[in-house]
Amino acid sequence: MMLIGYHRPSYRHKDNIPLEALANILGQGRSSRLYELLVKNKKVAVNVMSFNGFPGEKYSNLMAFYVIPASGHTSAECLELIDEEIEKVKKELVTQEELTKFKRGTVRRLLNEMKSNEDMAAMLTYAEVVLGGFDAAFDQIDQIRAVTPEEVKNVANKYLIKKQRTVGEIVPEK
Questions:
Q1: Helix 16-27 crosses helix 136-146 at what angle (to 10 degrees)?
Q2: Is the pLDDT of residue 58 over 80?
Q3: Domains plus CATH for the chain?
Q4: Which of 15, 50, 34, 32 is nearest to 165 (CA)?
Q5: Average pLDDT in the chain
Q6: pTM (global) more than 0.85
Q7: Is residue 77 classed exposed, middle or buried when 0-12, 13-18 and 19+ CB atoms within 10 A define those classes?
Q8: pLDDT by residue (tens digit) across 128-142?
Q9: If you placed Cys at 13, which of 9, 43, 51, 81 could pair as Cys (CB 3.0 to 4.6 Å)?
Q10: What is the spatial distance between Cα 117 and Cα 142, in angstroms, rounded to a whole number?
Q11: Three-class secondary structure of residue 72 per DSSP
Q12: pLDDT tier at 65, thresholds 50, 70, 90
């Protein structure tokens, strides 16, 4: 298993929502770019995923990727393909379709968190503690809907830099 982490600012930073979009498009779900490339097409991995805000969200943290190589393949092969896909997103704009999928899913998830009193209380508490104020919970929806392909490209170029990353690998004993 390999874990790759890129340093990023806290969730209160203006780049947070574009970073969320970037993580979603690159590696969240079976239709993400990395899953399609590494698992479905090249078959060099059994799983790959990206997530934003590791290990927590309040302070500066990591945008991280993990990959589990398929039998007969190496972490180095997987890392090379991940790096290639990151370079693509740094040079080319993400598609409107990819961005719309992120926006719809994320807004839907936030609205679902407002359905019960208990979920609403949890969301407001999270917004107060992590985002800096309870009203930020509602501001997120407008921020998500406003994200552009250019912003996603800009945060990729700003944060997904090799000298700002840490790579860890777990290798089983033979």
A1: 60
A2: no
A3: 2-169 (3.30.830.10)
A4: 50
A5: 93
A6: yes
A7: middle
A8: 888 888 888 888 899
A9: 9
A10: 22
A11: coil
A12: very high
What's the pLDDT band for 157 if we cut at 50, 70, 90? very high
Give Cα separations from 83 to 26, 55, 143 (angstroms): 11, 22, 28
Instruction: Write the CB contacts of 96 (distance below 8 Å, at least 6 apart in sequence).
Output: 149
DSSP 75: H
Distance CA 1, CA 21 (A): 24
Per-residue three-class SS string for 104-152: HHHHHHHHHCCCCHHHHHHHHHHHHHHHCCCCHHHHHHHHHHHCCHHHH
One-letter amino acid for residue 10 of the chain = S
Neighbours of 112 (CB within 10 A): 11
Share of the chain above pLDDT 70, in %: 99
Please report, for residues 1, 20, 72, the alpha-carbon distance to residue 156 in angstroms, rounded to integers and kept in the order given.
Answer: 24, 11, 31
| Burial of 154: CB neighbours in 10 Å, binned 0-12, 13-18, 19+ | middle
Query: Under 8 Å CB-to-CB from 148, ≥6 apart: which residues?
Result: 99
- Measured distance CA(172)–CA(174) in Å, rounded: 6
